[in-house]
Amino acid sequence: MLSGPPVTTTVNADQLLERFLAANPRQRRSLLSQVLQRSAELRPLIPGQLDRLDATSDDWAAGLLIQLLVADDDSLTQTFRERYSEGWLAVTSASGIDYAPLQRALVDQQFEEADRLTSEHLRQLAGEAAVQRGYVYYSEVPPIASVDLESIDRLWVMYSQGRFGFSVQIRLLRSLNGRWDQLWPRLGWKQGGVWTRYPRSFTWSLEAPEGHLPLVNQLRGVRLMDALLSHPGLQQRVSA
Q1: Alpha helices by DSSP H, 70-145
Q2: Nearest CA among 100, 153, 91 for reference residue 122
């Protein structure tokens, strides 16, 4: 008995979106290319989905949908930006820091600007002395409120498809049994902790290695990064 050509079944945009949001991390990665390819179909559906999602989590699926939504300069983008002028993800600060500019930079995938803002916020959180000198001492990290480091990390995770953030760096370091010398190449940083903010020294896109951003000044060794990654607020996020 002759059989015809195989029938290919393509899910509609609603089904793809529902499947993507309900998927586990591994399934979501496999669906990512389809979502990106069909972004034009999905964009009109995204505002309704965002109303159903938790703005206090850091599920990067929501961050991706937001980035697809604002990719074109049209009425959908305009409406979203007006409605969420402070950013869709709900973040808080014990020090009164406004994280809206950081969220906007990450939404627009302006990762170099987001990294600059992150360094600025860390100095603000460390205190006036750090702001004046232009960098943070490792000893100034432990008193920083957990909620602020959590907010910064959640923003990076949310808008990087789960690829960037302090918590991502912690997981990588743990997977290497705390071997800092092995962490640098995994992050795409220069061996030995050499650090510079020259644009050509780093990759300011999602093409960068996992954990590549945000940057931490290593001119004085690993103590600052160790203090950050050892902070209870960030450790709790990884253990949760």
Answers
A1: 75-83, 100-107, 111-126, 128-133
A2: 153
What was the pLDDT predicted at 227? 96
Contact of 178 with 222, CB cutoff 8 Å: no
Question: What is the overall mean pLDDT for the chain?
Answer: 90
| Mean pLDDT calculated for residue range 174-198 | 77
| pTM of the predicted structure, to 2 decimals | 0.91
**185-202 core/surface letters (b: 16 or more CB in 10 A; e: else):** ebbebeeebebeeeeeeb
Phi, psi of 94 (to 5 degrees): -80, -10
- Say what the pLDDT of residue 239 is: 81
Q: Is the pLDDT of residue 25 over 80?
A: yes
Tokens 């950013």 belong to 87
Domains, the chain, in order of start with CATH, read 13-83 (no CATH), 100-239 (1.10.10.1770)
CA distance 5 to 170: 50
Q: For residue 91, what are the CA distances in angstroms to 18, 30, 63, 94, 152?
A: 26, 29, 14, 10, 8
User: What are the structure tokens assigned to 122, written together?
Assistant: 């860390």
Q: Do residues 57 and 26 touch, judged by C-beta distance below 8 A?
A: no
